[in-house]
Design goal:
5-stranded antiparallel beta sheet; 27 helices; 24 strands; alpha+beta; Beta-Lactamase; about 750 residues
Length: about 750
Amino acid sequence: MKLPDVIKGLSIEKKVELYNLLGSDYQANPQLADVRNDLNKENVKICPYCKSTDTNSPRIYKGLKRYRCNNCTKTFDNSTNIALSGVIQTERNEENIDNVREIAEESEERYKAIAKYLTDYQYTAIVRDGEVVETIHNESCEMVTGYSPKEFMINPYLWINMVVPEERARVADEFSKIFKKIELPPVEHRIVCKNGEIRWVCNTVIPKYDANGNLVSYDGIVKDITERKRAEEEIRKLINDLEMRMEERTRQLEEININLEEAKYEAEEANRTKSEFLAHMSHDIRTPLNAILGYTELLRYTIIDQTQKDYINSIESSGNSLLTLINDILDLSKIEAGKLDLELEYVDSSFFFSEFERVFSLKVSEKGLKFILMISSDMPSGIYIDEARVRQIIFNLIGNSVKFTREGFIKLNIFTENLANSTEKPEGLIDVIIEVQDTGIGISKDLQKTIFEPFVQGKDFKNRGTGLGLAITKKLLDIMDGTISILSEQGKGSTFTIRIPNIPFLKDYSRTKVDIRIDTTEIEFDKAVILLADDDEYNKNYLRDALKNTNLKIVEADDGIAAYSLAKDIVPNLIIADIQMPQMDGFQLLNMLKADENLKHIPVIAYSASVLKKQKERIHNCEFAGLLIKPVKVTELYAELMNFLPYKSTQRVVQSSTSDLTSEITNLPELIQSLDYKFYDTWKSFEVRQPIGEIRNFGKNLVQLGMFHNSSTITDYGKNLISAADNFNIEAILNLIGKYKSIIENLKSSAKI
């Protein structure tokens, strides 16, 4: 029997087996084609991997029938045929090839469309004998320059002709480097586009050389950087605008006092360092401020008219604002230069944080606001901080809250974290958290991102300050390894949260500092001679007037040479010497005095307007007996003089006549009872805390009580309290509060109760 007849009689399974045994060489075994046809007619799919016919029904995938072998779990499609020894022979599918060709052509068109709108384009320049003979550009060149690839191909020098005339020579010179095998960095230049528009481009070149080192071509990428250049120009304009604004601010400061113009002139003449300029500026502002604030303090005790008192308060407020501004500028400069050092010491936490309620309560009450102070019960009594700098930080935050809060409250919340691990220890480390919350105008989200940068203010902050306070606050906290965050919404108030970590603490701490509460009216100096050396007439006049009602005689000198000559003639009890004087400064004068056997025993107090640490250290390292920093308050002047000159303390609490206490007072027992019971609890609370607003109301009530009972003693006492509160004179307030009990005792003594 012939092979074809045998094959026809086989079952499907046998045909599969035969196909796998004999292979697919149709020329050698043409009958195999019949076997394959039979298998296809029976819709039998044989797995090309394991030769199994156990396959799932077909699924259509991308136009092809796909099968899955249940034996080996592999998949195959209907273009797969069985081959000898497991080799898979795939029939060509003309339809699939056409699909692939269409997809490729479509992708190419899409690429061209995308490339056409790119702001970068590529090119290749062909070089022969040192000359560019042809340039090939991609489609993107037309988007950038307006010229098509064909136009570049026709004119190989079109690229250099596009360069603006004033830059053409430079660009040509730069590109000549690649002919000399010199590395060429990216070249930025301007081009004139086909439509006349001028644009900036950055041209990056990769050269190709032959074996002899000759340039044969170079590939380039041209990037349109016009927008970047425009942005850079805008930044330059903004910087120039900021510089102009700063110059305008400096000009306004110069107008405050003619001496500031002189300081600016001297600083510009020197033009050495930024710190030197700031030192001169500080000195020459503090010097006139010394007279301004000093005379303001003296006038407060002599003026009775309320309108004139308001004028004095305005002068003092403006002077203090200027002083704060100067201090802020110096602080910012020192912080940025890394020259600000913290002066750490243990402070009484309760006394320290209560101070802010005393200082701000009057301003808060005048605006109809409520001041809330909350100090956590687990706050240790002693914390190790830079008292002045932490006070500065909190003052900045509360001051802003007072400015921008019209109704509601201002809350200062103090608490600790990480104290639990140290509950049984008398000392350790804690984190102190300080929150300042208000119900003010709030801060926008955009402004919150930049509010801690110098000179940054929102539209609602216009003409409200320099914008330095929060910047200095942030930088001071950085030095303390602390942080500050803000939670705010416009119209709903703000909460600033400060965290100062790892603060050493003492649970049982008692204050070693004694508050100096000086009432200058109660200090009576013995007769003495003071030599005052200062070239500033206003400062000499101020010190002379501040001491005119004492037993002290003031002898004046305009410079160090004159002061030394006078000292030899009169041998004063004390010398006050300004540090900066013509011909001979304070340091030179001190050296002359200490070298003189007849004068070296005289204490010399330095009188300086400089607050720079270097200057202070120099003063302390010399033999100066003390230091007065301008501007000097009258109480500060008295306190310093009391260290060197003999004096007596006289009690002038009640200088009322006996008739005032007895005959002229209406219903004295009722007055004493009111003071002893109705007012006593309020007075007692002031021993712990002194809210300015409450102090003022207490004074007003006492004035009314004194007038009702015809007691000038009580009336005057109440007026003094009001005056001290109005002027934020904490020392005077504490002094007056301390006298309350003695006034009652004197009244009782007069009434024989």
